[in-house]
């Protein structure tokens, strides 16, 4: 497509921001002796309009993460001509499951057997299956969704019953704090939990993936074993809406 001068500027900004994030990822991987290929960057596109996402796709973003189902649906329809894989990374209500089953490639916030059952049923209707991560409340904050770490093992023992769900790993939001040690403790807890599940989980469930780390803490997450980084503002710039609109527990 032929771009206007403004679109060219926006495209270059996205490319430059992506390059900056990817350089920091590479540095963190080198620091910890990890292969760069072991870490996936998932651009979080909430509040970013579809027109800018076309530019992001042109810049190389072929997978995108969204929190709100309505926003994700609208964007998936507006960009249906592009081969984008959509990942739902926010809390899911039962009445929205049918929509997710139709267009999403991945769901990263499973923390309820009721949702697992409904998603499995809807996926079977659609003749599809889906990659799924189990959300864990690693910070222990009452305002956040996700299972308490001590409940995860019992929860995942039920998941083989849902044949359309391809269980791939765990997801968490660390505590929102400028205290890096408190953030790191959340990530360390997740790494330990994943290692336990890799040994004890039922056959056919994989816990290779660990989705943790966002724009403010993804370098720490890499050091603690993250395989998926959910980065938005570092790529697309500061959002107009406060983070509390999307993530429970944030006050600014």
Name some characteristics of this structure.
252 residues, alpha/beta, TIM Barrel, 6-stranded parallel β-sheet, two-stranded parallel sheet, 9 helices, 15% strand, disordered C terminus
What does this structure look like?
There is one protein chain. The protein is of the alpha/beta class and 252 residues long. The chain has a single domain (5-237), classed as TIM Barrel. The protein is 41% helix and 15% strand. The chain is built from nine helices and eight strands. Strands 2-3-4-5-6-7 form a six-stranded parallel β-sheet. Strands 1-8 form a two-stranded parallel sheet. Helix 1 packs across helix 2 and helix 4 packs across helix 5. It is globular, with a radius of gyration of 18 Å. Mean pLDDT is 94; it is low at 245-252.
What's the quick description here?
The protein is α/β, with parallel strands linked by helices. The protein has 9 helices and 8 strands. It has one domain: Alanine racemase (TIM Barrel, Alpha-Beta Barrel).
Task: Record the SSE blueprint.
Blueprint: H1 5-32, E1 40-43, H2 50-58, E2 63-66, H3 69-78, E3 85-88, H4 97-103, E4 106-110, H5 113-126, E5 130-136, H6 152-156, E6 165-172, H7 180-200, E7 209-211, H8 218-223, E8 228-231, H9 233-236
Parallel strand pairs: 1-8, 2-3, 3-4, 4-5, 5-6, 6-7
Query: How are the strands ordered across the major sheet?
Result: 2-3-4-5-6-7
- What's the β-strand tally? 8
Helices and strands, in order, run as: HEHEHEHEHEHEHEHEH
- CATH architect. name: Alpha-Beta Barrel
Mean pLDDT: 94
| Low-confidence segments | 245-252
* Strand percentage: 15-25%
Q: CATH superfamily, called what?
A: Alanine racemase
For this structure, what is the CATH class?
Alpha Beta
Structural domains: how many: 1
Largest sheet geometry: 6 strands, parallel
CATH topology: TIM Barrel
Report the structural category: alpha/beta
Helical content (DSSP H or I, runs of 4+):
40-55%
Shape: globular
List the quaternary state of the chains. single chain
